Amino acid sequence: MADGVKSDFRDMFHKGQLTIGISELSRMTGVSPRQLRYWQKKGYIIPKNEDEPGRARIYTMRMVLKAAAMSNLLQTGYTLKAAAAQVDERMKPAQTMYHVLFDRYQGYEVTDAGEILVDLGPFDPDPTQELYAQLVAEKPRFVLKGRV
C-alpha cells in the first residue's frame, strides 16, 4: 500500500482533522452556542484550538460526540456535572479502542481475491511476524505473516 494513503487515513482520524465550528455543533446537538461556551469555560468540552484565543472555536468529532451525549443526558434529568462525568466514563472504552487501533495501524493490503488485510504491525511475541486483521463473514480474523 502506498504511504500516502496510509498517512492520509491516519492524519484524518488520529490528529483530529475532522472538525466543525461552534455553529455546526450547536445545530447538531440542539445546544446553544452560549451554552457550549459555558460548557467550555467549565472544562467539559474543549475546542481543538483552545490555545488560540480570538479564533473561532473548532471541535473534533470526539467533542461532538461528547456534547451530543451530554445534551441527551441533560434532557433525561442529569445535572451538567453528572452528565459530563457519565459521558467521560462511557467514552473510556472507545478511547482505548481508538488508541489500540490507530497506534497499531500500519496500512492495508488487498489480496488477489480482493480481500482487505489491515496491517497491525509487528506481532509483539514474535517481531519477525506481521499481524493482520481481516473480516471473514463479517467477523474479525487475525493472520500472521512473515515480515518482508
TrEMBL record:
Which CDD domains would you find in this protein's record? Answer: HTH_GlnR-like
User: Which parts of the chain span the membrane according to its record?
Assistant: none
Per the record, the domain of life is Bacteria
Query: Can the keyword Metal-binding be found in this entry's annotation?
Result: no
Q: Which UniProt keywords apply?
A: DNA-binding, Repressor, Transcription, Transcription regulation
Q: Which organism is it from?
A: Lactiplantibacillus modestisalitolerans
Name the record gives this protein: MerR family transcriptional regulator
Question: PROSITE patterns recorded for this chain?
Answer: HTH_MERR_2 (PS50937)
Query: Gene3D superfamilies given for it?
Result: 1.10.1660.10
